[in-house]
């Protein structure tokens, strides 16, 4: 009788161990896939920030303004990608909501214009050239993006830092993107600069 009980206990332990190994492997695989997705996400985010900054520099510094429509289109495409990625943060990092951000608003202002405190701000490509006000707006936008970029940058090289954990990225987003008032500061920067 004791032999039967021992066999049952051993069989139970083998089944329990097998189930445990199976579920631990599934959990490990899930965590690994989640981390891989985050790595892809953060790399894409870093590249889009960099591209948006470079596009603003191209627009504001380049002497040849013949293709301003294409340059503005390229910038708003990068901004829209960033806005989409910021809104997708909750899918990669638990506990974060897809709050409104200044990046999406900036893209809308550049493309469609807006009204702010009784002033009308036209789309940036309306007159086929950039005004002093539009350049001021873009320069302030670039400075906001540069802060985020520098927070993501490695101290050792000019690449994405490998030390950006999900928690650190969450802090960067909360401190620099999910901040109310940046949209208004951009619009005030536009209004406070004299037209050409």
List segments where confidence is low: pLDDT < 50 over at least 5 consecutive residues. Answer: none
Give the neighbour order of strands across the main sheet: 1-2
Residues in helix, %: over 70%
How large is the share of residues in beta strands?
A: under 5%
Describe the structure.
With 196 residues, the chain is mostly helical. It has one domain (38-192). 70% of the residues lie in helices and 3% in strands. The protein is built from 7 helices and 2 strands, in the order H-H-H-H-E-E-H-H-H. The protein has helices at residues 2-61, 68-87, 89-92, 102-112, 132-152, 166-176, 182-192; strands spanning 114-116, 119-121. The chain has a two-stranded antiparallel ribbon. It is elongated, with a radius of gyration of 25 Å.
Q: What are its keywords?
A:
7 helices; 2 strands; two-stranded antiparallel sheet; single chain; 196 residues; mainly alpha
Question: Care to give the gist of this entry?
Answer:
The chain is mainly alpha-helical. Helix content is 70%, strand content 3%.
């Amino acid at each position: 009788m004791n032999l039967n009980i021992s066999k049952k206990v051993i069989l139970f332990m083998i089944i329990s161990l097998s189930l445990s190994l199976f579920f631990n492997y599934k959990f490990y695989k899930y965590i690994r896939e989640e981390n891989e997705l985050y790595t892809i996400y953060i790399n894409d985010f870093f590249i889009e920030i960099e591209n948006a900054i470079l596009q603003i520099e191209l627009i504001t510094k380049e002497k040849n303004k013949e293709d301003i429509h294409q340059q503005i289109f390229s910038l708003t495409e990068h901004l829209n990608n960033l806005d989409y990625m910021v809104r997708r943060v909750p899918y990669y990092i638990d506990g974060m909501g897809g709050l409104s951000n200044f990046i999406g608003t900036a893209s809308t202002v550049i493309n469609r214009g807006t009204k702010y405190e009784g002033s009308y701000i036209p789309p940036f490509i309306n007159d086929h050239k950039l005004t002093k006000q539009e350049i001021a707006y873009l320069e302030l936008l670039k400075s906001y993006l540069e802060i985020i970029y520098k927070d993501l940058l490695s101290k050792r090289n000019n690449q994405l830092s490998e030390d950006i954990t999900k928690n650190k990225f969450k802090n960067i987003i909360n401190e620099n993107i999910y901040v109310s008032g940046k949209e208004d500061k951009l619009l005030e920067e536009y209004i406070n600069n004299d037209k050409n």
